[in-house]
Specification:
Length: 422
């Protein structure tokens, strides 16, 4: 008799009990955000494809959790009073059912359609349909968010994030470099990425979460793929972003971002991406070349297309011309053809020792250079060139900023030069 009662109680606990009323638009927005924690491909594991709906009073909490990545997302949705209970449902199916049940209307009309949820059944004024449910016991507990330490302007945070994401490593040979280093020190937040061939760094002002005593630095390296999806999903967000970051040297395994009603906790990557300052080339004997961003963008784009037309590896060559100009040309495989090539002539403002480029060329990956140029907003960019390496006649790195100061103005991009063997 005791065993039968235990079985009955477990079955009752597993049954979906959530009840709430809201609009389809609010529910779909929450489901879109919580998809950030789920695998991109549909998983055969119910746990990795489910969503927890927990209702209390006039609020619904929509949550997903990916234990493998230690990622979780929780979104709060306003509901009619009297909500309660909880259900674990198939995330993808629920998203599709809500969209299908409100179809046949304009997007604005569909977003306003009232939806009621009772257990695992979704109802609109027109139709009621069940959604696949899973036992609540199989849903991993969503981890607690990391304590907030700073607040930044949302649109500015997303803008700066978009500027550094191109330098994230695309494969996971070095897992740390697939991430974005987020640091909070004093009154600013720094975002930093590198794939070993380039490094992007952006800074933005921040306000402390409270006025109490705190460590000098909070930081976490988190997976760039999740942040890229957040930037895409929240591109129209206009509010504040609150950052929950562990103190430096802390073993805390996660970081948290709060955007409006969304609470996004992301697993940390092991290690710390080095600072850009540590990698800057020595400025002694170097130069600063100010150039129109549109002009150099066109010249680099043209050179990359010519490399493709000639069947050469995509490389662009910047060479000195005279006291106020440089040339941008495709770096062709054939020495003879390279000697016959005359690049596009660009006017530059030169500060430093000697004529522009010091008669030492700079060879770069054009795709990387275009990514860097695209990230700037100003009409002009500055190329900070170190002195040529002794005896090689080639340069190792170039730093791009929006002004003549190497400290930059909120954004800096470092590119490694390509050394050509001739």
């Amino acid at each position: 008799m005791s065993e039968q009662n235990t079985t009955t109680e477990s079955a009752a606990q597993a049954e979906p009990t959530v009840r709430f009323a809201t609009t389809s638009g609010d529910l779909l927005t929450a489901l879109s955000l919580t998809a950030l924690a789920l695998p991109p491909e549909r998983s055969s594991s119910p746990e990795l494809g489910s969503v927890m709906l927990t209702a209390t009073g006039s609020q619904l909490k929509v949550s997903t959790h990916n234990p493998a990545l230690r990622d979780s997302v929780s979104v709060l949705v306003a509901t009619e009073p009297g909500s309660g209970g909880h259900s674990v449902l198939d995330h993808q199916e629920l998203q599709k059912v809500v969209a299908a049940a409100t179809s046949g209307r304009t997007p604005a009309q569909a977003a306003r359609v009232p939806v009621d949820m009772a257990g695992a059944c979704l109802s609109t004024p027109d139709i009621t349909i069940p959604v696949t449910a899973y036992p609540a016991e199989g849903f991993s507990e969503v981890p607690s968010p990391v304590a907030m330490v700073a607040t930044v302007d949302g649109p500015e945070f997303l803008r700066q994030l978009a500027r550094v994401l191109p330098a994230v490593m695309k494969d996971d040979v070095l897992p740390l470099l697939t991430g974005v280093q987020i640091e909070y020190t004093k009154d600013q937040v720094c975002l930093r990425t590198t794939d070993r061939y380039r490094m992007a760094e952006a800074t933005l002002p921040a306000q402390p979460w409270d006025g109490g005593t705190s460590p000098d630095r909070y930081e976490a390296a988190v997976w760039g793929g999740t942040l890229r999806n957040i930037a895409k999903q929240m591109r129209n967000y206009k509010g504040l972003v609150s950052l929950g970051l562990p103190a430096a040297e802390s073993a805390e395994p996660q970081a948290t971002l709060c955007l409006g009603g969304a609470e996004i906790t992301i697993g940390r990557l092991e290690g710390r991406i080095p600072t850009l300052r540590a990698l800057l080339p020595n400025a002694d004997g170097g130069q600063r070349l100010g150039v129109e961003r549109a002009a150099i963008t066109q010249a680099v784009t043209r050179s990359m297309a010519l490399c493709k037309a000639k069947g050469s590896d995509p490389l662009v060559l910047l060479t000195g011309h005279d006291g106020g100009h440089i040339r941008v040309a495709p770096a062709l495989d054939s020495v003879e053809e390279q000697n016959q090539t005359v690049g596009s002539l660009l006017s530059v403002e030169c500060e430093g020792v000697g004529a522009p480029m010091h008669s030492a060329p700079l060879c770069l990956n054009p795709a990387y250079l275009l990514d860097a140029l695209k990230a700037f907003d100003d009409d002009r960019v500055t190329l900070h060139l170190p002195a040529p390496k002794g005896g090689t006649g080639q340069r190792g790195k170039v730093l791009l900023t929006s002004g003549m100061d190497a400290a930059g103005d909120g954004y800096r991009h470092l590119l490694c030069a390509v050394h050509r063997l001739r």
